[in-house]
Structures are given as structure tokens and as C-alpha cells.
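User: Hey, my collaborator sent me this sequence without any context and asked if I could get a structure. I don't really work with proteins. Can you help?
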Amino acid sequence: MPTKNAGRGASEKTRGLILGAAVLRFSRHSYEEATLRDIAADVGVDVALVHRAFGSKERLFAEALRSVFQPGEWLERVDAEILPHLIGSALGERGGRQEVRQSAPGPLDIVVRSLGSPQALPIVREFLFRDFIDPLAARLDGPKRQRAMTITACLAGIRLFREVLGMGPVFDEREQESRRLIAAVLVACLEPGDK
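Assistant: No problem. I've predicted the 3D structure and written it out in C-alpha cell form, which is a compact way to encode the shape of the chain:
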């Protein structure tokens, strides 16, 4: 989704290169360590062009999150079809197969690097509510936002446990049992229960 400043001074191709460099920087460095000057240098452009294309570091950070976190394709299906997608998300799968950790960074990589940043956390929080929790809540019954937040917390917690704490092999060792347990938790969150 282009920002208001996207057309001034940067072609869509250059803007895409800047965004790609930002994703890599924000996934490998803390919010404070990832400077616009470094992102510009990664692409070989002047830092002023980065400012013209995105407006600010905060907006570039939000765009970087949005570019790697795209739940729209399955978020529309909050019914029996969504469960496999949610389980796959928790287990780090895309398109039915395990993600290769050395490949393209994901939203968790950016979020984990930003956990200690007072500047980045409000952006992450706003992003999660606007782009995942609230759209998911709109499709649920009963206590909508609480259920959507619990689903989000479960997904993020499992991914953090797997990837940050390195517990992926524990999940993978008994994959079917892990899937069954994760499904039970998510089904409890998806079903309206007492209204």
C-alpha cells in the first residue's frame, strides 16, 4: 500500500528496493540500530530519497511489517478452513511446508528485534490491532476482541517458543501431537462459547 509520499522522488522499483532493504535491516537489527542512512546505503540511494518515499522511519517500519505480514489471504475464512492456516502459522509453515529460517525474514523476526524498543512497540501494537486482531475479531462471535487477542497471543507465543528459544525440534519431534494440541487451543478460541 503506497504512502502519500510514494510518488515524490522515488520510482515504484526504487521504493520496493528501499522497502526490501528495510525489511532486512529491521529483521536483523533493533529498531534503533537500523538507521535510514544504513537502509539508503544498502540500496545505493541518498537518505533524502528514503525520506521522500516513506516520510519517516516510523512509516517505513510500519510498511516493512505490513509487507512481510499478509494474513488477508486466509483471514477472510474464519470457519473450519482457517484452522489449518492458523496451525501452519504457529508452526512456521507457508504453503503447507516448513519455512526455511535462512530465507526471507518474517514478521516475527522484525517484532523480536523490536521488543525492547519504546519507539517500535507502539507501531507493532497498532499494526497488530489494525491488520490482524481487529479484522479477525470482526469475523468472530461472542467476546470478539478478547478471542482474537488470545488467538494472536497463542500464535506469537508458539512462534517465539519455537524460534527464539529454539524449541522447534520439540514441536517437530511429535508433530502430529503438537498439531492436535495447537488445534485444541485454537478451536477453543474460535468457538463462541458463552456469549
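In plain terms: DSSP finds eleven helices and two strands in the chain. You can pass these C-alpha cells on to your collaborator as they are.
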